[in-house]
Amino acid sequence: MVRFKNRYFLCEIISEDLRFQQCIDEWAVHNTVKNVIARMHGDFGLACCSIAFSVKYLNAYTGIVLLCCRKDFHRLLWSSLPFITHLESRNQRYPCSFNTLHVGATIRTCQKFLIHYNRNQLLVLLSNCTSEEDRQAIQKSVLSCKFVGEEPYNSKDEESDDSMK
Prior knowledge:
It is a single chain. The protein is an alpha+beta fold. 42% of the residues lie in helices and 23% in strands.
């Protein structure tokens, strides 16, 4: 039996509009990404990426989204993400951009990277903190950022054999 390999894109949606968080949904992200792929790579790119393309995870409050596509065509998706300039949801357009944080072979490696990334973001907040109460709340959040039985994140865990070719 043959297993189809996928690639998972962990992206951050960056928007200055605060109303954006309330209106974002998986369907809007899915349609926007597919439209951009069609605009950049035409019908061929759209057909290749549509085979197994899906939005696996979306957190509207943090702006984190996990996209999945087939390994053979992940570069088409990857090259299209910088050209997203807006998301359309409920007949409104919200200006935004996608920042690709990590490309992984499994959801598990993307989760590990996201925990590592969030921990680093909390440490940056901790260094910019002014009051002692805020500092203690952030320190508590930093200590709670881990899986049960988690080993430290190591980017060498990835299958990088052909990701750089």
